Amino acid sequence: MRRVLLATCLTSVAALAAGGAWASEELVKMSANPKDWVMPAGDYANTRYSKLNQINAQNVGKLQVAWTFSTGVLRGHEGGPLIVGNMMYVHTPFPNKVYALDLSQDNKIVWRYEPKQDPNVIPVMCCDTVNRGVAYGDGKIFLHQADDKLVAIDAKTGAHVWTAVNGDPSKGQTGTSAPLVVKDKVLVGTSGGEFGVQCSMTAYDIKSGKQVWKAYSEGPDDQILFDANTTALGKPVGKDSSLKTWQGDQWKTGGGCTWGWVSYDPQLDMVYYGSGNPSTWNPKQRPGDNKWSMTVFARHADTGVAKWVYQMTPHDEWDYDGVNEMILSDQAINGQPRKLLTHFDRNGLGYTLDRTNGELLVAEKYDPKVNWTSGVDMDKNSATYGRPKVVDQYSTDKQGEDVNTKGICPAALGTKDEQPAAYSPDTQLFYVPTNHVCMDYEPFKVSYTAGQPYVGATLSMYPPAGETHMGNFIAWDGKTGKIAWSNKEPFSVWSGALATAGGVVFYGTLEGYLKAVDAKTGKELYKFKTPSGIIGNVTTYENGGKQYVAVLSGVGGWAGIGLAAGLTDPTAGLGAVGGYAALSNYTALGGALTVFSLPQ
């Protein structure tokens, strides 16, 4: 590993204190300071909300570029920087460089960390070489490398502290997710659903890197960490709840990957995350509900044992991964205060659950064009309570192998992919970047070989019939399951949102615009075109008494894979290359951080 230490800058990291208390206690206090941005989503609740209001709806139109930083890396730049005191930590796609910048010394590079990784990991990464960010805790920066290693780096010096091997890239296991520090542990998932990996969430000791617990998404109870008290929709799941839903030992190559976001409720001491698609994409080859793929997990932080689960898309037929963020809020429903979990699933349904027990409260379409289901059975007395009602016309299982089922909405990349939404306690609305895309889907028989693609479907993508725009940025009421307002975008909105106390919501576009809109009305207040398409998450912080807004640009990800990887076959990139072919008319490759502020 190559590290550069500028000792003269060490005084600027006084805020990086590692005490005897659990790191989560430290992080709860630090995240309450709006000047910093100490977790990938800003806080444990994944709200992506900031109390800063120096930049507001009245003056945001005056924003200017304050400074920029080139990452020196191409391809898709997802995630965003951390800001801890005077230090900013910026990450990149493969090879997963990390830069420490001193904001008090003209953004000087204090150290840089660049892992030496085998480039053969690149073709094993499903949908670009992205990385969704680093985590901070216990005086360390935690990086989930593309080769599925979790690395701890000294936050002051950039020195390597420890490495944990989370998976084996030769079998299709890779790392794209942002870790989360919880108490004395670091949690990290894995990618590899398109390679038939049996996926898991793992907790490592924050000081040593030793594995504390590992919870698989499917398999026997001792592997998925279920016990007699684990429930689904209020009822015990029972013994071998996963094994009974797979044919033979298909669960061993079952997917259910965990490459999305993790949230944590310190009061309940519970972690929440979602699992992805079952493998293969051909539903005919894996009869049954394929539990617990496509599932919201609520687990005890110390042991990993599941308290409750909810499977959103049983026997997935469309690749509707359930890994998107779980946003925690406290709101009143029908006059009763509730501890809520809100999740915008790839399948096009926005879910609100009680996070204490997994009770399903709301399940509604957040794009009216969603057609694979007519809705979720909300009758608690029904045998199919909580299950989506599948429309036969758009069922790739019922249509069968080697049949091209057309006009399915949403496409496999979902009404929303991993790009995280934001929640404002001021408006009690969620601000959601969405895809407005449909698909044709033809499953075919495929055999499993370790380390080789295990997909079994050919796709093409396009906007809904009669429409030309491929994205919307919406405001959503999670209590009622209704859209408050919606702004059209020519391409999918693949950027994470940011809501602020200034009444402004920020997001980026695939063409490269940073946009600011009014939180109440959606009215556009500002836009600026950055050097490349934005698939990063907008961040805000305060330094030297001034509020800044920062975003990574660098087109790529699933939607931009054609540009990122130089692909031209319309069906390549699992159908995205053809769907987003016009994107090359608006942007080009590049990796840069752009930081904005109001004029002096």
From TrEMBL:
Keywords: Calcium, Disulfide bond, Metal-binding, Oxidoreductase, PQQ, Signal. InterPro entries: PQQ_b-propeller_rpt, PQQ_MeOH/EtOH_DH, PQQ_rpt_dom, Quinoprotein_ADH-like_sf, Quinoprotein_DH_CS. Ca(2+) binds at E194, N277, D319. Binds 1 Ca(2+) ion per subunit. Binds 1 PQQ group per subunit. PROSITE patterns: BACTERIAL_PQQ_2. The keyword Disulfide bond applies. SUPFAM superfamilies: Quinoprotein alcohol dehydrogenase-like (SSF50998). The active site is at D319 (proton acceptor). One of its GO terms (molecular function) is oxidoreductase activity, acting on CH-OH group of donors. Residues 1-23 form the signal peptide. Its cofactor is Ca(2+); pyrroloquinoline quinone. GO terms for cellular component: membrane; outer membrane-bounded periplasmic space. Residues 37-363, 495-549 form the Pyrrolo-quinoline quinone repeat domain. CDD domains: PQQ_MDH. Pyrroloquinoline quinone binds at E78, R132, T176. Disulfide bonds join C126-C127. Belongs to the bacterial PQQ dehydrogenase family. This is Methanol dehydrogenase large subunit.
